[in-house]
Write a structure and sequence with these properties.
By secondary structure, the chain is mainly α. It is about 70% helix and about 0% strand. The protein has a single domain, classed as Orthogonal Bundle (Hypothetical protein af1432). The longest helix is centred in the C-terminal third of the chain and has 25 residues.
């Protein structure tokens, strides 16, 4: 499977097709971050080359569905797009099946099944354990506002804290590499909420 070709295809497809004003968070920056994180978490988890290729393909394609379907069921649409384009990059039927399952695992309502799906899910929210958490959260807030829902600052801090508490990291790799900073980000939100309640 030609993962470099998949990467280039995704960069072109998302770069040309996505409404970056509407989806300022779920754009190429997020996709690049997820691709970086699956590589990092996959290596830390001892994944072999075939597994790393599956993760890379899924990462580059996991939000392609935003181009055609927007927020609604974008994971399903992304999986459909992946199944359509992957044969052109030498993917076997088994690889296509695995990549689409990895993409569907990014649906926060689902429960990851197995190590690769857990790595994929952790990578999709890997920013929550980094210094860029605040910047990424601001982009997501703006994206949601453009979609029609706005928050006061206090409401947003509560929303973000609830997200962190509801969606922990699944893999030891993510917990080891990002857990401490994720905890610090949660504590900062708690402090901001406490200040907002005074």
């Amino acid at each position: 499977m030609d993962t470099d070709g998949i990467k280039n295809w995704a960069i072109d497809y998302i770069g040309r097709g996505l409404d970056s004003d509407r989806f300022c968070y779920h754009g190429l920056g997020h996709t690049r971050n997820v691709a970086c994180d699956v590589a990092c978490f996959g290596a830390e988890s001892g994944c072999g080359e075939p597994e790393k290729q599956l993760l890379a393909a899924a990462a580059w394609l996991h939000d392609a569905g935003f181009v055609t379907s927007g927020q609604v069921a974008h994971e399903v649409e992304s999986a459909r797009i992946a199944a359509e384009v992957l044969p052109g990059f030498g993917a076997t039927a088994a690889e296509i099946d695995q990549v689409t399952k990895l993409i569907l695992a990014t649906d926060l309502a689902s429960r990851p099944a197995g190590r690769l799906e857990e790595i994929m899910r952790d990578a999709d929210i890997g920013h929550t354990g980094t210094d860029r958490f605040g910047q990424e959260a601001a982009l997501l807030r703006r994206e949601i506002a453009v979609g029609g829902k706005s928050f006061t600052d206090l409401e947003w801090y509560r929303f973000e804290l609830a997200f962190l508490e509801a969606h922990p990291f699944f893999t030891e790799a993510a917990r080891r590499l990002r857990g401490e900073k994720r905890l610090a980000n949660a504590e900062k939100l708690k402090s901001l909420i406490a200040l907002g309640l005074k």
